[in-house]
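Dear colleague,

Following up on yesterday's call, I've attached the two folding results inline so they're easy to grep. Please treat them as preliminary; we haven't cross-checked anything against experimental data yet. The first protein's sequence and structure tokens come first.
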Amino acid sequence: MKRTWYHRMLLSYLPIYLFISSVIILMTFLMISRMSQKEAENANRMFVEQQVEAVDRSLRAIDNMLIKELQFDDVIIKFFKNVNDPTFLLSYSVSEKINQLRSSDPLIDSIYLYRFSDRMVMTPNMLIPSDRFGDREFADGMRDNRSYYTLSEQRRYAEFPDQSNPVEVVSIVRQYPLLGEREGLLVVNVSLQKLQRWLEETAGSDRSYFYIQDKDGHKMAGINRSAGSSKGTEMSRVPSGYTGWIFIGGVLDGHLFQFASVLTYIWLICGFIIVGFLWIMFVTRRNYKPIETILDRIHHYSSQKSSKLTLEKDEFKFIDQALEALIERSQTYQKLHEEDMDIRRRQLFHDLTEGSRIMDREAWTAEASANRLPPGFGQTGFAIFEIDRYAAWTQAYNPKDQYLLKFVLSSVVKETADGRQAGVWSEWIANHRLAVVYFLQETGGETELHSLAEQVRGWVEGNLDFTVTVGLCANTGTIADLPDLRDEAVDALSYKGSVGINKVLLPPYRGGQGEPYKHLQNIRSFTQSFRLQEPKWKEQFTSMFEEIRQDLLNREEHVNLMNFLVYQLNKETSALSAEIVEKWSTVYLPRVSEAIEQYDLMEELQPRLRELFEGLEAEIQALRENRSNSVLARNIRRYIEQNHSNPDLSLNHLCDEFDLNGKYISRMFKEEFGEKLVDYMVHVRIEKSKELLTRTSLSVQEVAQSVGYLHDISFIRAFKKVVGQTPGEYRKQ
């Protein structure tokens, strides 16, 4: 008997053996090559670190020389101190000193002194005003820089404005004196060309490259620095803690790992040998056909049912193709069926809860059976689970995690109901709201519904990183009652902003005691005070929100009040300067609108809005302080507030008091505070009279005299015009 199978298996194992042996040999050579490369990298890094130390040491020596000269050299000190001594001898001495300093270090290209008091610049060649100096822009920039020491970026230096060949330098700048009030600068320009020659003389090589790179990635100097990724291999990158420059070193290609390159060619040949053995293995596999019968049956079936499956040369590919086609078709049918059922079930949910379709028990039983819903029940309840702080929730989780967490919430609702022998039907009616229909027992439905909702709420709080607030219907009913049950749950959930989050809410929450319109006057008063930048606006803001929270208002009423607040702020700020209006409309109005749109609780909205209003207040104050007449306008306003009880207080009185023209005062006050001067006088007097009417027992005539009105008739008329009611009516209220 021939050993056919033995030889075939042996022929199959032989390529594997050769392949593994080749890999082991290759890994050995690669390890040796890697060790050599590591040693080369260490040597190159030591070389680069030496260059870093040498460059830093040279620059530090120059800086130390500057410090010494600025402290002890009489010529330099005399140049900065004796501004009124323009003698030729002093200029010559300073010029000689500069030349002496320049020759003290081979890297220095040029040095100049800049005196702030008369804006004169002393170079090695001349004493000139700064406006005729070629490096004027840099010197003036350093004058505005408050730093005691500066090492500039790579730049071009020219002593004369029309100089055709500026020098590439970096500048070391020290102020004079070293500490205290700045009187001038000493600027030393280090030539990058000299630095280049110095590096070539001290560290030149035809096998490696080395260059210095500034913070922005620009090459400054180096050895063979034109070598890039195509000509050299980078091996070291060392930052300088003193200059902030990056020192980069490597080796030029053609000198690196030549031995490894030879190995590459050798193993390329080995690769072709391995491919040959793989081909032998492939041929051997083709001779093996133990499932020929199965192939024939699949081909026979596919020729009758479909033209997609054709007998391939590779019989395993043919089998795989047939199985994939079968699985894909089955999954497609299943997916279409599930999607169709989801759409029909979602549409049915919408129709029943919106009241566009009414069913009796018999019709529901048939529909429930077709849509995999509980067919029989005693009572029906409705709940809406809303994700708290949804805007922050969407920022915290990506779409995939959001989908997963929503699935978890739906599953918890179902599993909780299954544990109580209650049916459940849930659908997402909004991105942050899960509506749930509960199918309960005949009795005790309301208690059971509240218990189920509370159990889900508690589980989410204890096991997930977010919370939910639940709106429940007050009563249970039948399928036909779902629209009313839904309205009750939505109404209960609308009071979330007043009652709080992470709770189970049941209607009704308000019995008519909450009246949103009574807060409109508080909003008007707050916005007027904010426009006038009165200190009491913060107190009014806090009081306004406290009164709103005391009333159990729903979200729609909260949003309407906040929109009225935005409307009033738009109205009040429109009377201010164009700069303030632009700042409000482009920066703060979108943020306020976003906060109103995304809030969950009024107690969270209040600090957010206060933070925005305080920021706007700071912007307004900064804009006003930049105006020349801002201080005068505030003084006039303060004078009115302090002398409102003076009957003679008028525009003419203010003209005499401040020795200004009446039209100028009125226009300036209007531009500064957005309100006419006369209207502001009346506003101050009426506000003060309100305090007296509510906090004292003074008569109306006495109150009128206390706020600057000689005749109580004039006071009553002005009070009613502003407040909308007489002083007596206001006191009774």
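Below is the second protein, in the same order (sequence, then structure):
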Amino acid sequence: MDVCGFNQTLLISVKVSAVWFVRVLAVSPSLNSDAEKALPAFPLGWKINIVALYYNHLGEQFHSHNIQTTFATNRDDLVHLTTDKDSKSFLVQTVSPGLTVLMVQGHPTNPSLSDYIPLLVLPAISEPPGSLRPGDVICFNSPVTNLNDQRGRWNVSSSQILQMNSETGAAIAKNSGTVVVYYKLEGGQQTFQQVVVEPASLPLVSVPTDRLLTNWPEASEYIVSVDLNTSAANTAQCTLDQWEAIEKNLQPKAKLQCLLHFSAPYLHMKTLQAVFHASSFYDINTAQYSCRIYVRPQSNSILHVLSTVSLSISLSVSLQTQSSASVPLPFPLSSTSVQSSVLLPYVPAFCCPVTEINLSHQQPVAEITLFGTKDMLSTLQVLSDTPDIAISEFHSAEDPTLLLLSVYSTSHFLDQASSTASITLYTQLSTQTHKVRVTRVVDRQESGQLKAYLHSEHLFIGTFVLFAVLAAAAALFIAYNTMLSHIQTQPAVYPDSITDQQRNLLVWLTPTDRSLQRRRWLWSAR
């Protein structure tokens, strides 16, 4: 077999020279930040790939060498070193914040074959500005981004201690303990921050000092502030996206429980539970917790029953936590709660089933019945918007929960055809107000008299109109006849130029003396 082809010879020149110095180069992905300035240090938890490069006396880099490179640091607790198989590169893992010096040495006896690099490691995640306790809301932030300026995702080592929103970095402390917060970029790089949550403190419950709790349906919500010894500074750096995640996803108010307890007869327990409702609330502006008590609408019968019932209402506030340990346990965490209770100052609302009364000449007095406790009725104030209405009170000695109000009207009020007034009932113990409308009405006797008066007035007007029409007709008739008679008594003048035919026509039109005398006799006084 013949071999066909070309024989090619390559000449490669290999330059061998002595190593003069060594340089260290970081080949890991570049560190980007969304801040205006560069990061002052390597992020805690960052990975750095470092390569040792050797050069000759002309500054030319060697492609290959036979020097055994060694790496060392002065602080082994700050970074971890991992050497590759070729002993030319190594991996630096930052594990603790601080300053360490990295040494790269090519020969132990030649100082020129050594290089030193300072490595400053700092946390790249914002630290909590204040202490953390269960119930605290905190927003973590990091300026680190990837090459495309995309932000990373958040994670936490224990969701039982810190509940984290992975997209925004907002979190809420649930239990005491130590937890690690991770911020991971796309590509594998991540940084972390260790956070300590202190044990929960006893909730401090404060009731309002300017008002009392009441069952009046139109009363505004009764707000009881709850202090969990949390710090509002932890939410000072939250962004709008983080606040939205706190409100929709984390829901801090769900961690607080507000329960009402009633000391009342058993028959009224279900009624009280249906009337009063307590719910927890978290204010994102002040980062404070509270319990808000609402009063549901009630019928008049329920309002009547509760107005005279003597009872006491207490509020218990608890923060749901779990007993945690620093090491994993083979059994589930046991649920515990930190609870406080307080007695709420309560005053029942008075009941007035009357909303409108009518007054007339036959019934100039009306009564209004009120139901309430003795303390409530003793502070009741009655106010009328007109001096024409007088009110007197009568307290029943047999039943102290009953109050009768007598409403009197003056003659001026009753003399008016349509009069209205308003009576306002209020008390200094609560914001409850009740209005009663007073209306002047016409009774049967007044209605009959009014009808008779209107009938006689209509009859008089009809008679007057009839006589006026007859008088006007007579005057017109007399005026007409007078004018007609005056025209007929004038003599007829016959000019010479009138023809015989025209004269005969005028004679025919002119009345004769006999007819004129007949007409005059018709109107003669005889």
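For the second protein, one point worth flagging: Confidence is low (pLDDT under 50) at residues 323-335, 505-526.

Best wishes,
A.L.
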